[in-house]
């Protein structure tokens, strides 16, 4: 099996909860580009 071994430009992490979703995006050197709390509301 072949794997992608090059460094990515961005890395993303998502922490999903019942009432909120936390999103964090880092660039290739580990600096935070986006760190946001997004409310999760079900659509009617």
UniProtKB/TrEMBL annotation:
Q: What is the official name of this protein in its record?
A: Transposase
Organism this protein belongs to:
Desulfuromusa kysingii
